[in-house]
Amino acid sequence: MQLDPKTSLAITYKCMAFAALQKYEEALDTCTFALKVDGNWGRFSPALAWLQRGILLSGLTQYEQAIIAYDRTLLLQPKDSLTLAYRCEAFTKLNQNEPAIDSCDRALAGNGKWGDKTAAFAWINRGVAHRQLKQWEKAIADYDRAINIEPNDPLTWAAQGFVFEKLARFNESLTSYDRALQISPKFSLALVGRCTMLNQLTQYKEALEACEQSLQGDGNWIETGPAQAWNQRGKALTGLEKYEEALASANRAVGIKPDYPEAWSDRGAILWYLRKYEEALDSTQRSIQLNPNNAKAWLNQGIVLRAMGQPEEALKTYDKALQLDPTDAETWVNQSVALLDLGRLQAALSATDNALRFNPKSFMGWYNRGVALVKLRQYQEAFLAYEKAAKVKPDSADALTGLGISLFFLKRYPDAVLTLQAALKLNPNQGLAQEALKNGDAAANKKIIAVTLLCTGSAKCDRYAPRVCSHSTKSSSAETPNRALPSGSSWGREEWDLRSGCFSGVRSGWVRTAIATHQESATKPQDPTD
User: What are 216-229's pLDDT values in tens digits?
Assistant: First the structure.
């Protein structure tokens, strides 16, 4: 049977042919014309043209108009599953997630006619709506249903990986991204997702490789573009302590996408490592301007301010970060360090309690709790805190050193010696453990302990102490420097003398070693993911 080329049905087929050739404007005009001519649809109906018109309008990102076209289709075929699923998709593009879910549910309960698609199309769009509502578990369940129907769709696996990432289920996320890559080995989005998860798992060498592969991949980035790959590449290089290369990568990220708040925040963290604090502050401020609700950017700004010797200002930014995300353990840890700087010991202890409430395996939470408790002279509790820190990181010489310190204060000297020896087996250059074992009497040990505890996590300590300590290693007599305190210092004279290491039994050479050992005690700036 030959089709009359001037009928509505024939013109609709012509519209569909233009669409297949990606000539969307011509296709749209042709479908519109089909709806205006003779109304001869054969065994079909105008629903065919209205549906095609909706699909074309969606492709042109005219989602409101697309929904109108889908609604016209549904007037003729109210239970058409394919139309309802496309309508669901259009609502997700407008971030109207409740009507999207309703439309997807109706699609799944509809006539089961999916055209060249399957029910997975509805489940995927339902997952998108739940993801945008931050209903992560429901989104995972939706993606699971889609995968059961179409197990070889790499995009669905990657979408599920993203949701697992939001739940901090990093190994499961990595598994989903890896499954996507088994199906499509050069899928850029899955490769950058893999890089992101490997960064989270501190597997920086593998992360770097994945990010570089993503930049050489198929260029299918969906929303993020290559800026995410450059940003994550910078984070991997930061983890590998290649800070200059990391900065170059971060600069590429913000150059490609200047409105990328996470990249500006991460760039600030890299500049912090490079001790370029003013530039770091500018970068975190840029991130906050772009997205004032990014808790990670506020956290990173606080860390930079503390490094600049402004703990009070740092506390204000930590408070802002905690307003946005009160469950972030790392922010509570950093708040505890700033409070220790200011001598607000009970508040610091409370901050570590909150950190541990949200992450019982936070090494720095337990470690800083030990520091606060020693300063409060609660030595038994400090011992228990350092013991927990050592369980979280059994290979941490610093944790074992803190444990040994607590044992000295508890006058359990043989146990203290054994613990410090164990610390030195893990790190033969652990300065505090070396010196504590070298000094036989408890009083000297306590002074060594005091200077390290006061310096723990303090950016000021490594900045100023070497300037005032005597360079002589011959005399062990007390020598208090007759100097003014550093500008902006919140320390008292007695505390400054201890930080300087200018007291009996402690040589300035050891102080520099101890400072170098402990200057990383403060938690590093956070990566976004997110």
Answer: 999 998 777 899 99
